[in-house]
Amino acid sequence: MPLKNYTTTVPADRSIQEIQNSLVKNGAVGVMYQYEKGTGRISALVFRLPVKERLVSFSLPVNWRNFQEVLKQQEVRRWDDEDYCYRVAWRDIRDWVLAQMALYETTIVELPQVFLPFATDDKGKTVYDKLLNNKFLLGEGN
């Protein structure tokens, strides 16, 4: 079965705007776009959330080329249309963000908690990046 939203006709900029609106509605104090070099496409949303008495930055990437590869493997007819893949990717990211917001709005989680892997340091490296590079050792869990 193909990826969720593989039939979407919703433009990527609308999905991005819906994500931004949801972030701001739920406490983000700033949102910035990072652009993919040479294409003008947005590659990540960078936003700031208050955590206790500090502002923490988060970087939410789209990695739309990964979506393209999955669509190719799933033999979706339009997998080679980059605009289509970019649109599907942002729609899926939007759905994920809105699902996280639903958990937050029902007080199951705190907002920074759901975005924690995307929290960035002053050099733009995410918590997840640090984990992959063994700079954030969690230990055995015992």
Give, in spatial order, the strands making up the sheet with the most strands.
1-2-3
Runs in which pLDDT lies below 50 for 5 or more consecutive residues are none
Total beta strands: 3
Shape: globular
Q: Give the number of domains.
A: 1
Q: Which structural category fits the helices and strands? A: alpha+beta
Mean pLDDT: 89
Indicate the proportion of strand residues.
Answer: 15-25%
> In angstroms, what separates the terminal alpha carbons?
39 Å
Helix content: 40-55%
From the structure provided, what is the oligomeric state, counting identical versus distinct chains? single chain
Number of helices: 5
The major pleated sheet works out as: 3 strands, antiparallel
Order of helices and strands: HEEEHHHH
**How large, in whole angstroms, is the Cα Rg?**
16 Å
List the SSEs and their pairings:
Blueprint: H1 12-25, E1 30-35, E2 42-51, E3 54-61, H2 64-73, H3 82-105, H4 111-115, H5 127-132
Helix pairs in contact: 1-3, 2-3
What tags apply to this protein structure?
142 residues, alpha+beta, three-stranded antiparallel sheet, 3 strands
